[in-house]
Design brief:
With 261 residues, the protein is an all-beta fold. The chain is 0% helix and 51% strand. The chain contains no helices and 19 strands. A hairpin with a 4-residue loop joins strand 5 and strand 6. The radius of gyration is 21 Å and the shape is globular. The two termini are 31 Å apart.
Length: 261
């Protein structure tokens, strides 16, 4: 999309590549209803049956914010639907949307929306506010009650199909909370205990991919990558990481995982 200024229309610039034929094509779609918007942030792109659905966060001249979903017909190259999902009043809340995988956009049926109370306290940036689930297929928005103590923040939330995983990280391990969108039920949390206590809890990171949970932790004299079964908590692999001149200001994380073709 274009980096539009206030009182300028938002234009989606769409590039499409067909893997089977190796053909590419591009087109642009102007959203005339977006007059008056300043910054924009695309949060999810869903493509199915010739329809491109784009979930986008937009700021208004009045400092209000809106979460919208545009539906674009791939063949006609026109907007066929413009859905207002949520409007955030000026300075009353700070919205933040977490989708299936923050490293990847694409074909996510569900989106996790965390609307935090507005605050100038940087320490409160990752706190949990009012949580909602948005379904890109149906356009429905539903509130979600997070169990007490489930998470301190939603940074590592992962949606896989109709499953939501919320890991709560501590120095001793990870408590994994699991929600099913179809049954609308929380399962019993899975507790994973680290073989050694983590020295710096703030540097611990987790990454969920398919049926695996990857955890990178800093120990007393080294870092450790642990790979667990997502459903049983069984240890699948341990990888010791030793880095020369590694300081307390340095930290490691799993940025992305690729499946071998």
């Amino acid at each position: 999309y274009n980096e539009s200024g206030f009182n300028e229309p938002l234009i989606f610039k769409i590039d499409m590549h067909e893997k089977k034929t190796n053909e590419s094509r591009s087109f642009e779609v102007e959203t005339s209803s977006a007059i008056g918007y300043g910054w924009n942030n695309i949060l999810n792109v869903h493509v199915e049956n010739g329809k491109i659905k784009i979930v986008i966060m937009m700021s208004f001249q009045t400092s209000e914010q809106e979460l919208r979903m545009y539906e674009i017909d791939e063949q006609q190259q026109t907007i066929t639907d413009d859905l207002l999902i949520m409007k955030i009043p000026s300075k009353s809340n700070t919205p933040s949307l977490f989708s299936s995988n923050k490293q990847t956009l694409g074909n996510q049926n569900y989106n996790l929306l965390n609307v935090r109370k507005h605050t100038d306290d940087e320490q409160a940036y990752d706190t949990v506010g009012d949580v909602y689930i948005f379904n890109t297929q149906t356009g429905e928005l539903e509130s979600l009650e997070i169990p007490a103590g489930a998470v301190s923040n939603l940074e590592y939330a992962k949606i896989d199909g109709s499953e939501l995983y919320l890991p709560n990280i501590s120095a001793e391990g990870v408590v994994l909370h699991h929600y099913n969108f179809d049954t609308k039920q929380w399962a019993e949390p899975l507790t994973i205990t680290y073989p050694e206590k983590v020295v710096d809890e703030s540097s611990s990171t987790v990454y969920i991919f398919e049926d695996r949970l990857y955890s990178v932790n800093r120990l007393a004299d080294r870092s450790m990558l642990m790979i667990y079964d997502l459903h049983t908590g069984e240890v699948l692999a341990e990888v010791e990481i030793v880095i020369k001149d590694f300081t307390r200001e340095d930290w490691l994380r799993v940025e992305s995982i690729y499946r071998e073709a």
